[in-house]
Amino acid sequence: MSQLNELKIDNASLSMIAGWLHNGNVIMVEQMPIFGGYIGGIEETAICDVATTLASFTLLNASYHLDGPIHIRWGTTTSRETLQIAGHVAAAIDHNTDLLIANQYYPISGPCTEMCLTEIATQAILDTASGRELMSGCASAKGVLEDHTSGMDARMLGEVAQAAAGMDLGEVNDILQRLLRRYERRFLTAPAGRTFQECYNVRRVTPTKEYLKIYETVVDMLRKQGLDMP
Amino acid sequence: MAPIEKALTVYDTYLRSEKGPNMTENVWDNKVVPDAALRIKEKHEIVFGEDLIPTDRDLIDRLFRAGVDMLVSTGIFNVDSGKVINVTEDEVMAAIRNAPKRIQLGANKDMVLLEPRKGNSRRKPIIQGGPTGATVSEDIFVPMFQSYAQEPVVDTIVNGVMATIDGIPSATNTPFEIKAALAEIRAVREACSRAGRPDIAI
Q1: How many angstroms separate the CA of residue B199 from the nearest CA in chain A?
Q2: B180 and B117 in a common domain
Q3: Helices (H) and strands (E) in chain B, counts
Q4: What are phi and psi of A45, to 5 degrees?
Q5: Which residues of chain B neighbour A173 with C-beta distances below 8 Å?
Q6: Which single residue of A93, A143, B87, B110 could bond B106 by disulfide (Cβ 3.0 to 4.6 Å)?
């Protein structure tokens, strides 16, 4: 279930949690703090995000907390500001607790584009290196266009996470700056990408040659940036 | 022997939200939360640099303490009762100590363990693949989810929203929302079975 922005809850959510609690279910509580919204700036949003994460475990019987700082203008988790919030909050929770924390993916661009895969890779490096335990994605094209998601997006998420695990933080921060610069000025003209029907053979459930080629281009770029991609 | 601590439950949360201080949502959103965040930012001297992941241990710890301060000094607001739910720092710390440290997701050969990684461990995080709440057409729902379940790096599945059910929009607060939600679960299970991973966690 989801908390409400910011630091709010309703009775329907409490009732759902009660049901899951007695069923013995794993309870994931999510909340996506809005950078630039009620709370304000980067540091204020990060402080509220830590409080929100702790509220999930203190008041809502969470088994794990799903984060997702989101940019009020762009509606993405992959902007510089929201990545910095997520990276700092994960480090603060990870260094001081054993709580299980996750993050979710809302790139601005859509499937079958280099920009979308680069956005996913950037956030995957950040979440892995800042100590998160689970990554959930991807709602490509901000999750607002029907059928603009695909398994290849998750392949990039997983393969980058595998490559980034164990890397030195100084090196990671340098790579993140370089990757961000490749897409952060293109938010206004971000490509919507292709629908699942356009970038997969739907009957055989296989990606098109076009998507495989774009994927390999981004993998090559990530290798050049220092990632040990498979 | 020290008394055994008992972490709060959702029932304590509900009871506190019946008895807490009165508040309006407008004041909470526009004054209480932003004022508290700014005050606590200044009190704990929280200023980020250029790095996206902090390496300054003191800043990391101050941010954690600032978050605890925010939850304890502000609480959370129940929009239905119009009251604030307050917690103590002891209760927050008890919750941290009592929270799950190891969760089994999925079953049989599709089971994975969600455990603390601690820093940038060499262990890959759990990858939960799926549209993360994005809308998916009814007629391609199964292949869409099969495309996630068949990826070896994907450990668990996160759902999407079936746009229609029997061609009718699965609108919120209608019976079709319920029908679509149940159809989603059946379709995701079918997709995972087709990918040879019937017991993967959803």
Answers
A1: 15
A2: yes
A3: 7, 10
A4: -65, -40
A5: 51-53, 55
A6: B110
| B163 inside domain | yes
- For B97-108, the DSSP string reads HHS-S-EEES-G
Chain B hits for A57, Cβ within 8 Å: 95-96, 99
- Asked if residue A149 belongs to a domain, the reply is yes
Terminal C-alpha separation, chain B: 42
| Sequential pLDDT tens for chain B (202 residues) | 455 567 899 999 999 999 999 999 999 999 999 999 999 999 999 999 999 999 999 999 999 999 999 999 999 999 999 999 999 999 999 999 999 999 999 999 999 999 999 999 999 999 999 999 999 999 999 999 999 999 999 999 999 999 999 999 999 999 999 999 999 999 999 999 999 999 999 9
From A157's Cα to the closest Cα of chain B, the distance in A is 8
How many angstroms separate the CA of residue A210 from the nearest CA in chain B? Answer: 16
ipTM value, please give it: 0.97
Give the end of a domain, one of B66, B98, B130: B98
Tokens representing A100? 């299980």
Check CB contact of B58 with chain A, cutoff 8 Å.
no
With respect to residue A212, please indicate whether it lies within any of the assigned structural domains: yes
**C-alpha–C-alpha distance, residues A38 and A70, integer Å:** 13
The helix (run of H) or strand (run of E) holding residue B193 is helix B175-194
| In a domain? residue A230 | no
Amino acid identity, position A144: V
Preferred mutation among B132, B140, B144, B190 to probe A, highest tally of A CBs within 10 A: B132
Contact state of A154 with B154 under an 8 Å Cβ cutoff: yes
Reading phi first (left if > 0) and then psi (alpha if -120 to 50, else beta), residue A92 is in alpha
Q: Which amino acid is at A160?
A: V
Tell me, yes or no, whether B63 lies in a domain.
yes
| B202 is a domain residue | no
The boundaries of the domain holding residue B75 are 10-98
What total of structural domains would you count in chain B?
2
Of B68, B98, B128, which marks where a domain is finished? B98
- Let me know if residue B1 belongs to a domain: no
Confirm or reject contact between B159 and chain A (CB < 8 A): no
- Are residues B171 and B127 part of one domain? yes
Cβ neighbours for A167, distance < 8 A, ≥ 6 positions apart: A125, A129, B120
Same domain, yes or no, for B142 and B177?
yes
